Amino acid sequence: MEDNTKPSSYLDEPPNSRLFLVTSKSITEDNIRDHFSTFGEIQDIWVVKDKHTKESKGVAFVKFAKSSQACTAMEEMHGKCLVEGTKPIKVFIAQSRSSGSHRDVEDEELTRIFVMIPKTFTEDDLKETFKEYGNIEYCIIIKNKLTGESKGLGYVRYHKPSQAAIAIENCDKTFRAILAEPRAKTSSTENEYFGNSRSEHMANESGMSGYPFSDNSNYTSGDTWNSDMITRCLMVSSRAAITQEQVYSLFDLIPGLDYCELQRDQYGFVKGQAMIRYNNLGSAVYAKEKLNGFEYPPGNRLAVTYVDDGEDRTSPVGKMAMQLVAAQMMSMVWNGPSGPQLMKTSTGYAPLATSQKLRVQTDVSLPSVKKMAPSDSVVKERLFVIFNPSPLPVDVLEDVFCRYGSLIEVYLVPGRNVGYMKYADRKHANEAMAALHGKVVNGVKMKVMLADPPKEESHKRQRTY
Question: Rounded to an integer, what distance in angstroms lies between the CA atom of residue 241 and that of residue 10?
């Protein structure tokens, strides 16, 4: 049984080590233990029961010591019968206690890992290094868009969640392997995580500076510029959960990004901070002034501060050069677009130019932009899109979804992370769904599916989306 005296964080240490089971009501804790103990050390089993009747509700949790054990158990036991005559069980990786969303064996987020590698590594080197942990679907090395040189970062996609978990647990720690899209934490988990003791821990860690989250005044975009401390390295602090890919996509809008890494504690949890490094001082100044106080995801203001990069700035000539570059960049900041405009247009240094390559960032091979259908066109098909963690701007969605032809309108449901894409041609809608389902655009993952057809009853008001 679950020990209620243990902190809630215990249940998710390490991440993805707890299973959620849907079973028959007759299944007992002993039945579960007999079948699941073969996969590794079980730390807890909790069969959920009715408070009044004390009967099982047909759901249970199993906590393993390792993520790889939980993933292997999920893969092997999903769809199996624990007792003859009972229905097959469903097995998922459980999210944090306050979340109702669980991951199943088909979830691609459990199979892709993000690693730091030597810049001399090729994709063959990356595959050769990580193939011992399981069958690899593909490897990708992130490269500089202009020079084509490796940034020392890469992705490895496995066929099974257990293989990715084994790789994270057993590869050399210098690779700093993590899941490419860490699970999102809800606000209650964040409040617990960013308590005073954890804030002190962050502040005391070498090379890191704790951010005073309780002081909202520090998030103002008009922060005073301190010319005594300007470096190529930035520390980004976020109250809300944010993934490696989201941070990278945002700061890579500004040319010259050399390094991006989420900061984690000893348990592997994201600490709400990321280290950013540019290959030139001007880009760092521009990023700091543009993105400090910027809301991303919506409602969450980022705090961006300079971090000492260890370079010698005692030379008078060096100081003058630094101040000159900073002054030039500040002039661009003051005369250029605001932070939200930067995100909307993705223009980097050129405020008046519109660079499509920077505007939409995705690994999907997009067709060329096509003209949208007239607004009074007959709707032949609607797509329903779920965004994680938050919706993309309407103009970006129009840019992406219009490329498959006959897009009439993009509609985002207010206050929710969902929207509808209306098409004048079913074929074009199906092509968009096939190409974009499960893909990441500008750091936002989209689930694209056919929307339910509008109801035809005459007594009901016609749907407007």
Answer: 19
